[in-house]
Write a structure and sequence with these properties.
Blueprint lengths: L4 H12 L16 H13 L3 E2 L17 E2 L1 H10 L2 H13 L6 H15 L3
Antiparallel strand pairs: 1-2
Helix pairs in contact: 1-3, 4-5
Length: about 120
C-alpha cells in the first residue's frame, strides 16, 4: 500500500479536532479501515502520533490506533492547514517528480508558510 499524503493530512486534522486530545475512532470518508489503520501505523512509526500497534496474524496490513498527536504531528498539521499552501506544495512535489519523503514535504510546507509571513 502506498503512503497517501491526503489521508495523512485528514487523519491529523481529525485527531487534532478531538476536544479532549485523545483520538476518536477514525473514519475518513473514501478510505477503508485497512487504509486508515496502515496510515495510523505510519504516523506512529514516523513520530507524528502516539498509540498502540494492533497488527495481528489476521491483519491485512500493519495497523495501529492513534491515541494522540506528538509535537511533530501538531507542527505538520499546522503547516498543512492552509488549503492553498497544501495544494501549492502538492503541485511542487508533483512537478519535481511526484515522490518526496514526509520530512521533505513538511519542510516544503514550512518554507511556503515562512514565505507567506515574510520570513
Amino acid at each position: 500500500m502506498k503512503r497517501d499524503l491526503e489521508l495523512i493530512r485528514k487523519m491529523l486534522f481529525a485527531v487534532e479536532d478531538s476536544p479532549k486530545g485523545f483520538a476518536p475512532e477514525l473514519e475518513i470518508e473514501g478510505y477503508t479501515p485497512t487504509q486508515i489503520g496502515y496510515h495510523a501505523y505510519l504516523l506512529i512509526d514516523g513520530g507524528f502520533a502516539k498509540g498502540p500497534e494492533l497488527t495481528h496474524m489476521g491483519s491485512e496490513s500493519p495497523e495501529a490506533r492513534i491515541m494522540s498527536l506528538t509535537w511533530e504531528g501538531h507542527d505538520f498539521a499546522e503547516a498543512a492547514r492552509d488549503p492553498d499552501r497544501w495544494q501549492q506544495a502538492m503541485k511542487i512535489a508533483k512537478d519535481k517528480g511526484g515522490n518526496v519523503t514526509l520530512d521533505v514535504f513538511k519542510q516544503l510546507l514550512i518554507s511556503l508558510m515562512k514565505a507567506a509571513v515574510g520570513l
